[in-house]
Amino acid sequence: MRFFLLLLRVVSFIPFLLIASIISVLIFQTFKHIETAYYIREFFQNLLFNSMLNSILITLIAFPIGVLISFYLYYQGKTRVSTTFYTLNKMLSVTPSIIFAAIGVMFFIPLLEYFHLVSYYIILIITFSFMLIPFIVLKLHFFVQKKIDPMLKEVSSSLGFSPLQTFIYLFIPLLRFELITIFLWSISIVIGESIIFIFVSHYTNSSHQTISEYIALSLIDNSESFSQLYIMAFFLFVMINIIDVIRYIIWKKYE
Amino acid sequence: MNRDLFSRITTLIVIGFIVGFTIIMGALFSISLLNIDNSYNQIHFFPSLHGSAFLISGFITITLPLSFLTAVYFCFYSESEIYRFFMRLVLRILSKTPVVVFTLVFIAILQYKNTPSFVILIVSTTLYPVITIKFINRLEQIEKEVIEQSLALGASKEFMIFKIILPLYFHKMMEPINHLVLQSIGIVIPVIYFLELSTISDGIKPNKTTTLSTDLFLALQNREYFNYALLITSLFVLFHLFSSIILVKWVKKS
């Protein structure tokens, strides 16, 4: 009994140890190589800009589709289509990003090449949509089940509301804070992603590198000095956490 | 707008998504079946399967007990609200941290070592916060009456966790386990870096323990190896699909 409790206490200390080591290593390495940071400033600004631009652009396109699908699942209730879609979503939400990269490279790029439509942003948006939409749908579906009474749908239709009116006057206002937090969540997922960016850039000869892509490529190729990478990792870590803090503040205010 | 147009659009998106996914996977799977001999000749498939099994068993052996025990301490033993607040915050930050940041931090702390055990340690640490959050969410869904009644009947907390909660709610615990297995199959960057598998410009050059996901990463760099990449992608998706269907059915049945 005592041993078990001691074991639990030791194990529960691991997350604190991990976060302390991550923060201390990143801060220490960043300040150690602060001179390098000055030299890479211009290059780094591009990476930062690309990271933000790509993540916002991708989320802006995938997010409305995910919201519409969630509304469909809510409005239609349990049908064969919605059950199939839900299972498919469950599967895609735990699929690793390398599979989405593979689908993008082996299916979408040849398809778009056939129509002479190969573009960095088009391929990125299509590939990431497959990855982000299941995430958005599952999160939103969870909040819908928790917050919106299924009877409201009956009430709105008996009052003569069309599906569009139900969507605008019921679904969006009731879930406005959840929608904002899921939107920010999606942005932070895209910022942290690297494998899809690596392959899309590789096959479209794009120079729009993002921070996580640059770090991952340097690690794989073992080509860069780590001093630059630590500074970028520090900014990546801070950026993702700032987005999460904003999300948390909005959530707390709402709660 | 037409009264029904909106619902038609939403239905079309959902059906389009299902049909699109089926067409993509059907195409990839049928092409990989047609070229299965070429795929097998391109690279040794079974050593990579063995490598994947070895690494995944390592990830599970470390991450699963650690995540479960942390979640148990958080849900049943910790009484301090401050601890719970900070624990949630720390787990949230860790779960959002990209794998490249984890890799860089471990390179700084432990220095470079190209052994599979080192990779297992790093990837397990990366997966640990995500799985812990999933376990905490599942344990918090357990009805309070079950806990209160078992404690009132004289059961110790240890007895309650292992003899009552685990057998009774095992189906709820399966989702984090499923998530852990499926996510760990797809881990690429730390494995490639620490095991020095190849560089992106060299193409396929496996050595030491390759896994299916690293093989897929290397094969995707060069169109000559697409047959092999197709085979691995199809296997991955089939495995994911079956495990998700079984999980959904099992949870529903339970």
Would you write up a description of this structure?
The complex is a heterodimer of chains A (255) and B (254). Chain A is mostly helical and 255 residues long. Chain A has a single domain (38-254), classed as MetI-like (MetI-like fold, Orthogonal Bundle). Chain A has helices at 2-12, 14-32, 34-39, 41-76, 80-93, 97-114, 120-147, 150-158, 163-174, 176-192, 195-204, 211-221, 226-254. In chain A, helix 4 (41-76) crosses helix 10, helix 6 (97-114) packs across helix 7 and helix 7 packs antiparallel against helix 10 (176-192). With 254 residues, chain B is mostly helical. Chain B has helices at 5-34, 36-42, 45-77, 81-96, 99-110, 116-140, 144-152, 157-168, 170-185, 189-194, 212-220, 226-253. Chain B is globular. Chains A and B meet through helix 1, helix 2, helix 4, helix 5 and helix 6 of A and helix 1, helix 3, helix 4, helix 5 and helix 6 of B.
Question: What's a concise summary of this model?
Answer:
With 255 residues, chain A is mostly helical.
The portion of residues assigned to helices of chain B is over 70%
Q: H/E series of chain A, N to C?
A: HHHHHHHHHHHHH
| Helix-residue proportion of chain A | over 70%
Return the structural class of chain A. Answer: mainly alpha
Tally of extended strands of chain A? 0
Largest sheet of chain B: none
CATH architecture of chain B: Orthogonal Bundle
What's the CATH H-level homologous superfamily of chain A? MetI-like
Biggest interface: A-B, 81 and 85 residues
Distance between the termini of chain B: 44 Å
Q: Proportion of β residues of chain A?
A: under 5%
Number of H- or I-type helical stretches of chain B:
12
Q: Which range does the strand content of chain B fall in?
A: under 5%
Domain count of chain B: the total is 1
Oligomer: heterodimer
What is the C-alpha radius of gyration of chain B, as a whole number of Å? Answer: 22 Å
The general outline of chain B is globular
Give the count of structural domains of chain A: 1
Superfamily at the CATH H level of chain B?
A: MetI-like
Q: What's the mean pLDDT score of chain A?
A: 85
Assign the CATH topology of chain A: MetI-like fold
